[in-house]
Amino acid sequence: MAAAGGEPVAQGGSRDDAFQTFYSEVKQIEKRDSVLTPKQQIERLLRPGSSYFNLNPFEVLQIDPDATDEEIKKRFRQLSILVHPDKNQDDADRAQKAFEAVDKAYKLLLDPEQKKRAVDVIHAGKEYIEHMMTQKRKQLKKEGKPQIVEEDDPEMFRQAVYKQTMKLFAELEIKRKEREAKEMHERKRQREEEIETQEKAKRDREWQKNFEESRDGRVDSWRTFQAKGKKKEKKPRTFLKPPKVKMEQRE
Q: Mean pLDDT of all residues in the chain?
């Protein structure tokens, strides 16, 4: 097995060595990027695909996942000053968006639970790549080929972990939005049912009120009707009397 420079590396330590090299390079990149100008930092935070890149708060603040709270706070102050709209009045709108991304990442890392989730995602990305490397080696061994994979190169390993980590953050964000949309739909449905129940109760109350208010009128009408019926005089029935028959007289 060979490393990036072609030197043979023992299989047992290759993955840990590769990961340590990966983080060493990440820190070097962070150190290099940390001195970017305000304009360059704004460009970095608003580059195409930033809605997914910026899901990783450590990526936004350019800080190591093992950083202490004090280091995170210090880095936030440095970066927030660089991209603050007041310091970039010639590009205030974009600076405001960049500042909001920095502020959001900082607040997320202040929450121990949220910070742990972000660290877990990064570790999950590393473990996934290591697992895929193991599977590739097994397949190469089965085929009788040298068990060398492209991720043995620290740079390739770094890129693979970075891509997988970004993918995991994106998947979590998509699931969060779907869950949020589902909850919103459920709240809307419940609210509509509540409104319908309230309107039905209101209609029932109004009907009952109208029924009670009109009761006396209905009773009076019935009594009046009955009274009129009693006052009607019955006309005696007349029958036609047959004419009297005169008896004939005989002489």
A: 82
Query: Following DSSP, what letter does each residue of 56-116 receive, concatenated?
Result: SHHHHHT--TT--HHHHHHHHHHHHHHH-GGG-GGGHHHHHHHHHHHHHHHHHHHSHHHHH
Using DSSP's 3-state secondary structure scheme, residue 49 falls into: coil
Task: Tell me if 106 sits within 8 A of 112, measured CB to CB.
Answer: no
Would the CA dihedral through 79, 84, 89, 93 be positive or negative? positive
Give the C-alpha distances (Å, rounded to integers) separating 54 from 104, 105, 108, 167: 9, 8, 12, 12
b/e map 94-121, b = 16+ CB within 10 Å? bbbbbbebbeebbebbeeeeebeebeeb
Section 184-196 average pLDDT: 91
Single pTM value for the model = 0.60
The DSSP code for 35 is: T
> pLDDT value at position 214?
76
41/46 Cα distance (integer angstroms): 9
49: number of CA atoms within 13 Å, CB side?
7
Helix axes of 154-213 and 215-231: crossing angle, nearest 10 degrees: 30
Q: What mean pLDDT do residues 90-102 have?
A: 96
Q: Quickly count: other Cβ atoms within 10 Å of residue 156's Cβ.
A: 16
CB 136 within 8 A of CB 122: no
Query: Does the pLDDT value for residue 177 go beyond 70?
Result: yes
Q: Which residue has the tokens 């890129």?
A: 159
> Tens digit of pLDDT for each residue in 117-130?
999 999 999 999 99
